[in-house]
Write a structure and sequence with these properties.
CATH architecture of the largest domain: 2-Layer Sandwich
Structural class: alpha+beta
Strand order of the largest sheet: 1-5-6-11-10-9-7-8
Helix content: 25-40%
Mean pLDDT: 92
CATH topology of the largest domain: BirA Bifunctional Protein, domain 2
Number of domains: 2
CATH superfamily of the largest domain: Bira Bifunctional Protein, Domain 2
Shape: elongated
Distance between the termini: 49 Å
CATH class of the largest domain: Alpha Beta
Length: 416
Amino acid sequence: MANIKLQPPRGTRDLIGEEFRRHHHVIETARRIAALYGFEEWATPIFEDTRVFARGLGETSDVVSKEMYVFQDRGGESVTLRPENTAGVCRALVSGGLTQSLPRKVFYAGPMFRYERPQAGRYRQFHQIGAEILGAAEPLADAEVIACGHHIIRELGLDEGVVLEVNTLGDAPSRDAYRAALIAHFSANRDKLSEDSQRRLEKNPLRIIDSKEAQDRALVADAPTIETFLTDAARAHWDALRRHLDGFKLPWRENPRIVRGLDYYSHTAFEFVTDRLGAQGTVMGGGRYDGLVEEMGGPPTPSVGWAAGVERLSMLLERGGLTPAAPRLVTVIPVGEAEEGAALALLQSLRAAGVAAEMGYRGNLKRRMERANKQGARAALILGEAEVSRGVAQLRDLDAGTQAEVPLAEVAARLG
């Protein structure tokens, strides 16, 4: 047993030190900004009835057919580790009896799971933040959820290298006409399509538009766009969305190649993209999904939202030199065992006052000072026999290199 070298499972990783600080910073920043927009945070189970995702993502999607972690529990029920969280949020809305109190604005953060080939910014256990507006059909809801996402990216200091791209998927009649045009276009070149796209041509031709295969991309470049197939209602939604984005003063550009393949997606589709992460350039993406709540057994509920990869945002922070600094502690150092009681009382009084502090468990004064410097402590409080008898501490500023005697009752205020 002593020779076994256990490692985290392939496609997972430990979050320690700087990596954890970046990860935490992304989630806490998103949580804070989402609250400013009126989003309440929900937490749904990490695993769900498999039908939640099979219905929510579509049986033919790559996630369902290739990437989900599906297993039977001891009761023989089929459960799945969540590959995304929008379906779970919609299920919670229905099972929680909340469809009578709409709209609801929901924020979430947590781990997701997909069995795929690990690569830069992609893991088998990964983390997402997300925002959903459930029960609002107005284009203003689309614009506001996008504005919230942009605000989070800006607050993280990443907006300069990230671009918002927007498209419309139209309504059902628009999509039906567009689907027919795509089938005609790709059928004429069927033998040039990749094997996956040949299958998609029969089941879901819109998904060919976002194929990453080079042979497909050449055909997609000449494919028709949905713009000419929009109904009057779909065009009105599209025009209003663009007007509201301008009203929020958001920089954006149109990308007619952003699609969502499932029928319950409609109207708005968008992505925040960057060229700083190689080929995997999307850091946040979403759109309108007016039929998903109904798929979960609820009433028709127009909804819109987005999800963002915490790992990718964290990578952008790292590459931009934006890793948050570690919190700096105050170190309490008793010179000997006789002073430990007074040191512990001082330690707890500092913590009660909101000052981060610690006391080493062993070592003489020199070794404890070396440890304080190595940890980047901002100050050391030294308590010897003379200091304890007079009710004072030696406060050493480790940045300035200065030292002063301070009454114990005033230490917290001086360091606060």
